[in-house]
Amino acid sequence: MSKLYIVPTPIGNLEDMTFRAIKVLKEVDLILAEDTRTSGKLLKHFEIATHMHSHHMHNEHKTVENLVKRLQAGETIALISDAGTPAISDPGFLLTRACVENGIAVECLPGATAFVPALVNSGLPNDKFVFEGFLPDKKGRQTRFLALQEEYRTMIFYVSPHKLNKTLAEFVQYFGADRPVSVSRELSKLHEETVRGTAEEVLKHFEAKPAKGEIVVVVGGKSLK
Fold first, then answer.
1. Which of 24, 32, 29, 30 is nearest to 94 (CA)?
2. What is the b/e burial string over 35-61, where b = at least 16 CB atoms within 10 angstroms of the residue's CB?
3. Which of 52, 85, 150, 223 could form a disulfide bond with 113, CB atoms 3.0-4.6 angstroms apart?
4. Where does the pLDDT of residue 32 fall: very low under 50, low under 70, confident under 90, or very high at 90 and above?
5. Which of helix, strand or coil describes residue 94?
6. Mean of the pLDDT values across residues 129-138?
7. pLDDT digit string (tens) for 157-167?
8. Closest CA to 176 of 148, 195, 196, 156
């Protein structure tokens, strides 16, 4: 029976790969990978010989129609990203939506994603939160910050290392120097680190010690007091 499987992959530590994910990747007809070179190492490690095709942000608009036809013809396909759960700030949404619209079964396996451990690690309220992903680079960035000034829920951002200090400085500017911030980097990897404090304190830390690796920033919401 045709089905699209959304399969999370480790965000760093290969031991976070689930038995079920390995089983699915071995049994499907095709694996769609964000970067076949990166995923090739993962598949080799777990002795998965399934054929791969490239599926990334630059070609997904062009490939969705053909993939839907293959699924409608009875194939089973697994979608993976370089790390974590596909479609969370990664390719995957367009194909998933197309499958839903065409009545094709979609099954997302549970597994690794970076923002959940970062949120829990932060010690900030997690009963209500908003995932913002990557902020706009230029156009719309200030507008987004102005809108988030009134956000009372905990906010989660993905930030590249070379933009971290700029972003932290913007948190100070728009949210205030005392707003609580938690920066988690290299989650599940050897040099995993979480730095907590006020926006100003965390900015000073990373100005003195520039960050490297994958980064998730968690910011406390506006106080309702």
1. 32
2. eeeebeebbeeeebeeebeebbeeebe
3. 85
4. very high
5. helix
6. 94
7. 999 999 999 99
8. 148
Other C-beta atoms lying within 10 Å of the C-beta of residue 172? 17
164-175 helix and 199-208 helix, angle to the nearest 10 degrees: 160
Between CA 67 and CA 10 the distance in angstroms is: 25
What would the two tokens of residue 35 be?
Answer: 């970067």
DSSP notation for 116-147: HHHHHHH-S--SSEEEEESPPSSTTHHHHHHH
Report CA-CA distances (Å) from 112 to 31, 50, 147.
18, 21, 30
Q: How does the average pLDDT of the chain come out, rounded?
A: 95
Torsion, Cα of 150, 151, 154, 156 (10° steps): -110
pLDDT, average across residues 185-189: 96
